[in-house]
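User: Can you fold this complex?
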Amino acid sequence: MFDGFLAPRYIGWMIDGLGVTLGLSALASVIALVLGFVLCVLRLSPSRPVAGLAAAWLSAFRNTPLLVQLFFWYFGVSALLPDSLMAWLNAPHRIGVEAFGAPWPPFEMLAGLLGLSLYSAAFMAEEFRAGIYSVAPGQTAAGRALGMTSTQIWISIILPQAVRIARAPLAGQVMNVVKNSSLTMAIGLAELSYAARQVETETFQAFQAFGLATLFYIGAVALIGGFSQLAWGRSSPPTGAAR
Amino acid sequence: MTAPADEPPADVPVVIDIQGVSKWYGAFQVLNDCALSVRRGEVLVICGPSGSGKSTLLKTVNGLEAFQQGAVTVDGVRLDDPKVDLTRLRSRVGMVFQHFELFPHLTVMQNLTLAQVKVLGRSQAEAQARGLIYLERVGLIDHRDKRPAQLSGGQQQRVAIARALCMDPVVMLFDEPTSSLDPEMVAEVLDVMAGLAADGMTMICVTHEMGFARRVADRVVFMDEGRILDDAPAKAFFAEGGVRSPRADAFLNRLLRY
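Assistant: Here's the predicted assembly.
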């Protein structure tokens, strides 16, 4: 039975949670994009040991549940780190961002950010790799025939096309980051899902709390979709249509 | 193998010299002791059935295909010389591919200037000026700001020819340049190639266009199973009862039946 809307203060909690979700997702996405690209380059390395290690790393992170990975970073690693370091991590420090009103992040935030970034980076690396593979091998031959070096071919010919091909799936991965960030509630990070759960416990208005959280998630994901369409247009890239 | 008759005068320098080149993929031999030399201004057509090794032989000339035995010399420089800067050498050998291989993310003009700037170190202005000359020559100057995908296959291949010409090549290699084109676009590409030949460009063309070979080529090389079976002046090769191996004879008959 519908028992009215959430009281303003609970909506405030949810908005705070949304802020954490967006901040965490944005940071994790940026880290994952950079790290994913680096992992992809290592994965494609001509050195067998390097490529093999990168492949093992990628499959380890892609083939285990994110929830387990978050527990690993939050509980597992904190048990391994020396007590003094944990105490330091848990205590507030000045990191030069206080002026912007950002406090020293709690350990949940650090562990959540690390777990989410590493997990997402593994998927993004594979999207980059798929993009690179879908650039026709003849393109490399054409570059070589023109006397270009391998580095020049990579920078001027392969990467621009690969990124164009990979950007739609990469945008999808950024949406996944937003959705996956909800799992960090399990390690106590006060993001949107955590806030919804709290509001529900407090008010018993489960439908309203999780309904609003759903709307917020849909909004955030739609924002990413809208942005990527605005940036690159609706049409598929001209790549590949050349033959 | 039939001996090449009326060779060009010996004072014309040899641009490409292929000596005893053999190549294996594992146990399978794709090139078997191939020898070939091309003098400046000569137009050579290599023909033969699919899988005969003609494209592979062509690609040994600019080092796109490695080989295990033999030697290839381009404009006096041996490809296997460890002191040779292979990228430099390649920039002087123009190549046109069956599938054009234009860079789809760049405009026509950018396709023409990229390697000029990156490899030859020309300024943008210089590279564009040269690009315009060759776009004019292939009749596509109005398309300079388009993307390759906006052009027809024949137009793309003409851009690819212009792109290669911008590098001032000593020789142009054509690897089945019309094989992926609609029939009505074949002529526009062959016209450009015939024009180049008439201007004295040294050319090696792998092609099934026997009309082109007959009309434009100085020499015809026929390959089968990795071997060069014929190397003859075009006139002699195509003449009724001309100098050609039985295998080439059968190939020609089959090709000319329809």
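The first helix of chain A runs from residue 8 to 43. Confidence is low (pLDDT under 50) at residues 235-243 of chain A.
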